[in-house]
Write a structure and sequence with these properties.
The complex is a heterodimer.
Chain A (H helix, E strand, L loop, with lengths): L1 H16 L2 H19 L5 H12 L4 H26 L8 H12 L3 H35 L3 H18 L4 H15 L2 E2 L6 E2 L13 H19 L1 H8 L9 H22 L5 H16 L12 H16 L1 H7 L5 H12 L8 H4 L1 H32 L4 H20 L2 H19 L4 H24 L6 H4 L1 H18 L1 H12 L1
Antiparallel strand pairs in A: 1-2
Helix pairs in contact in A: 1-17, 2-4, 2-17, 3-4, 3-15, 4-5, 4-6, 4-13, 4-15, 4-17, 5-6, 5-13, 6-11, 6-13, 6-14, 6-17, 7-8, 7-12, 7-20, 7-22, 8-20, 9-10, 9-18, 9-19, 9-20, 11-12, 11-13, 12-13, 18-19
Chain B lengths: L1 H14 L3 H10 L5 E5 L6 H17 L3 E5 L6 H9 L6 E6 L1 H9 L9 E10 L4 E2 L8 H10 L5 E4 L5 H13 L4 E4 L3 H8 L6 E2 L5 H5 L4 E2 L30 E7 L4 H15 L2 H9 L2 E2 L5 H21 L6
Parallel strand pairs in B: 1-2, 1-3, 6-7
Antiparallel strand pairs in B: 3-10, 4-10, 4-11, 5-8, 5-9
The chains are: A mainly alpha, B alpha/beta.
């Protein structure tokens, strides 16, 4: 009965999605998404905002299919710059830079890009089925999360960030805490106090993620490459093999599977869905690997897992939006805006009142993923050839697109200045051998942790024991404590350092 | 900035001798695209109301009305930008009342609310206090009784400190003499996420309406002068016995002070014409919004009244930001 119902629903979805017009909108979304994913800084939020008025002219189905395509298309494209030039186009492709860029520097950009696309395709297909099968029960699961559970999950995430780092634990700690401090800049949600803003109104909402990530990753890398001609040559000229070898494929299968499952689950949670997913998938792979010390030096697993995870998460983040009308991130807020423009109020009633729209959108995601893989695999040759462009010219183009991308976020020139400042800061970190990835994770998770902690304390009327009374929260905290013990224990640490020196 | 001010002054000085030409420009207004500054990020409530208006105004005045989202600092950055724009009839501010009748009483703002001329009302959100059904109270009266018997037991999620939805619960607490815990969130979506599983028991936001329709939440009252067309049985605050206790959320178009009166009048007439059209009424109704029409003069008085009520509340409850 259930199955028959599902098949009937999917059949209805197919009949909507397969119409020539809707296939075209799906393709348009996928192409636009890939382009903005490749261009650093220009994210899906700004693009969807620009396209919202246009969508009013389309039928509701076509409009939403296109907007959805932009989002998951951007996940495909976002890994491209992360791998080729160490610039995470999206917050969720930050970890892809760790091993992806190293692969590119070894001349293996082709296989890295191909695995990223294949992993994304697989994850996208599985997540689409997950939405169709399990949207309502999964949403109920996500609703079990209360503020103390979120706080404990974030704590676990931060401990992951320290485990994730290569080299000195102390330096990783430092970076996480510095990231948290940077994240605290702005207006305090609970009291309205302004923190570290020096009266500059552009800082009242805090520092943006994009200027920070672009600065410490991308701009710093450009400075480093330009100050060292040998390094620049290495980054650009050496290219060998476009497609992954059989060995690459064999090593990637398990990470793709694990990344898909983890990403699919974390994507349903509001807040840091896709970013938590990619970071967690990377850490998980490191735990599973027989050679964890090689992560960060160009391991294909380090590209396959997070890229699958972020695409799965991007897809499953539609679940709370479609079934509850709750946006789990800014992109979903734009989708809700798109639905409202067509007079559709997102919420539990959409599935019953507009089944054609609901199921059509889900089935179109599968078509979209298929189009993206067909589109992206042949493009790899072109992207890799981009690396043959002399670096001094490529660097200017990258800087140019970075500036446009950052400006387009809030129409604010001050944010463009910010990438310059963070670029210099990132270069300094690089010279001193500090890793920027834990900094970014601290920056993202720290303020969320604070908000959840204070909300928990408000709701419990000041009783801190709730963190241990909630089973979910207790589990996360115990896991975090366990991980921390492993990292901090002297003999474990010695073994770890020895491992890294190999 | 200084350079821009200088240019604006220089422009004004040059324009003065050509007053005749200026009136001709007013006659032909608009003869180039018009910018609408929205002081919030895309995707939020202001965007939701602003986009259909930009489209309709472009259509009926024959020039593109282009939306520029200048989010940040609770709306202060965009509002400041609009205050400093040249009053030439080609830049307007589309904002909820929060930036003009609430924020200046709570913190130092980089603009003066008096540096704007009201142009037209573009929509009021119609919603009310919602309650999670697991709590018990089914009506507004029962909620008040419950809160009196169990002081501090109910909690209420708002979209953030100093937002109109925060002021709404403070106003109710102040007028009814009850104690409800206020929990601020970053935006109403976050709050709804905790309201649905009963982590917070109450809210007052338009995003609760679909869930009321689906039977997941109860709507206790309507914070508006008239009832909500989709909920004819739910009483207004005044009908519940709490007159002058509403903190309305109303969106309007404002022009930088100094914009020609004739342009303001022309735009006001167009806005009223569009607001009265069947199509716009339906579109606004689908987002739980009604559009009351007012002349610029009526709006000045309405803004003053709104500000005075908020100031009274802020003083009485000793509310402060900073």
């Amino acid at each position: 009965m259930e199955l028959a119902g599902l098949l009937a629903n999917l059949g209805l979805g197919f009949s909507v999605a397969v119409s020539l017009q809707n296939l075209l909108w799906c393709l348009a979304g996928a192409v636009i998404g890939t382009c903005i994913g490749v261009l650093p800084g220009i994210g899906p939020v700004a693009t969807m905002a620009l396209l919202l008025p246009v969508t009013y002219l389309l039928p509701a189905e076509g409009a939403l299919i296109m907007l959805a395509g932009i989002y998951y298309g951007a996940q495909y494209g976002g890994s491209t710059t992360a791998i080729l030039v160490n610039l995470p186009g999206e917050s969720s492709s930050v970890v892809t830079t760790l091993d992806g860029y190293q692969m590119a520097r070894q001349g293996r950009a082709g296989p890295a890009l191909a695995i990223a696309a294949l992993g994304s395709f697989f994850a996208g297909c599985v997540a689409t089925i997950a939405i169709a099968l399990a949207a309502p029960p999964l949403t109920r699961l996500a609703q079990q999360f209360t503020p103390p559970d979120y706080f404990s999950l974030m704590t676990l995430g931060l401990v992951f960030a320290i485990v994730l780092a290569r080299g000195s634990v102390l330096k990783a700690f430092g970076m996480v805490f510095l990231g948290m401090l940077l994240g605290l800049i702005g207006t305090d949600v609970n009291t309205g106090n302004l923190r570290y803003t020096f009266g500059i109104s552009d800082l009242f909402d805090g520092i943006g993620f994009v200027p920070l990530a672009m600065g410490v990753f991308g701009i710093a890398e450009i400075i480093a490459n330009l100050t060292n001609s040998e390094r620049a040559e290495l980054a650009s000229s050496k290219v060998s093999g476009l497609m992954p070898t059989r060995e690459d494929m064999r090593r990637s299968i398990a990470p793709i599977l694990r990344g898909t499952v983890l990403g699919g689950l974390l994507g349903i949670l509001p807040g840091g869905g896709a970013i938590l997913a990619s970071f967690s998938a990377y850490t998980l792979e490191k735990k599973f690997s027989r050679t964890p010390e090689k992560f960060g030096t160009g391991m294909i697993e380090g590209v396959a897992a997070p890229e699958s995870a972020n695409n799965a998460a991007a897809q499953t983040s539609f679940i709370p939006m479609l079934t509850l009308g709750i946006p789990s991130n800014a992109v979903m807020a734009m989708m809700i805006g798109g639905m409202m423009i067509h007079g559709i109020v997102p919420g539990p009633q959409v599935m019953e009142q507009r089944p054609g729209l609901f199921w059509g959108m889900i089935v179109s995601m599968w078509f979209g993923n298929l189009m993206l893989i067909v589109l992206n695999l042949p493009l790899i040759g072109i992207w890799v050839r981009l690396l043959l462009v002399p670096y001094r010219l490529l660097a200017i183009a990258i800087l140019f697109f970075c500036c446009i991308g950052v400006y387009s976020l809030n129409n604010s020139a001050n944010e463009v200045l910010m990438i310059a400042v963070f670029g210099l800061f990132g270069y300094l970190l690089m010279k001193l051998d500090f890793e920027p990835a834990p900094l970014l994770l601290g920056f993202l998770l720290g303020p969320m942790m604070e908000v959840y902690m204070r909300r928990t304390m408000l709701l419990s009327r000041g009783d801190p024991w709730v963190f241990l009374q909630r089973p979910l929260s207790l589990c996360f905290l115990l896991l975090a404590a366990l991980l921390l013990v492993f990292v901090v224990l002297p003999n474990v640490r010695k073994a770890r350092q020895a491992a890294f020196q190999e | 900035m200084r350079r821009r001010e200088f240019l604006a002054l220089a422009g004004a000085a040059l324009a003065a001798p050509f007053a005749g030409k200026a009136s001709a420009q007013v006659q032909n207004w608009p003869d180039k695209p018009v910018k609408l500054i929205l002081p919030y990020a895309p995707g939020g409530g202001t965007d939701l109301i602003g986009r259909p208006w930009a489209e309709k105004l472009s259509h009926s005045l024959g020039q593109q009305f282009i939306i520029e989202n200048r989010g940040g600092a609770g709306g202060m950055i965009g509002t400041e930008a609009a205050a400093k724009a040249a009053p030439d009839g080609y830049t307007f501010l589309l904002t909820p009342n929060a930036t003009l009748s609430v924020l200046p009483s709570l913190r130092k703002t980089p603009y003066d609310p008096k540096s704007f001329l009201p142009v037209g009302r573009v929509g009021d959100f119609v919603t009310g206090f919602s309650m999670h059904p697991a709590v018990g109270p089914k009506t507004f009266k029962e909620m008040i009784e419950y809160a009196k018997v169990n002081p501090g037991k109910l909690s209420y999620g708002s979209a953030g400190l100093g937002t109109a939805t925060h002021l709404r619960i403070e106003m109710l607490k102040y007028r009814a003499g009850i104690d409800i815990l206020h929990v601020p969130y970053r935006g109403s979506a976050d709050a709804l996420n905790d309201h649905l599983p009963n982590t917070v028991q109450m809210m007052n936001e338009i995003n609760t309406i679909p869930h009321v329709k689906a039977g997941k939440l109860l709507l206790l009252n309507i914070n508006n002068a008239a009832r909500h067309p989709d909920f004819p049985d739910v009483p207004t605050l005044t009908e519940c016995g709490y007159a002058n206790s509403d903190v309305p959320i109303w969106y309007s178009l404002f022009a930088p002070a100094g914009t020609a009166k004739a342009i303001v009048a022309k735009l006001n007439a167009k806005i009223i014409e569009i607001a009265n059209s069947e199509e716009m009424r339906d579109r606004m109704r689908s987002i739980n919004t009604v559009v009351p029409t007012q002349t610029p003069e009526e709006m000045v008085a309405y803004l003053e009244e709104d500000t005075a009520r908020n100031v009274e509340l802020i003083k009485a409850t000793n509310m402060k930001l900073e």
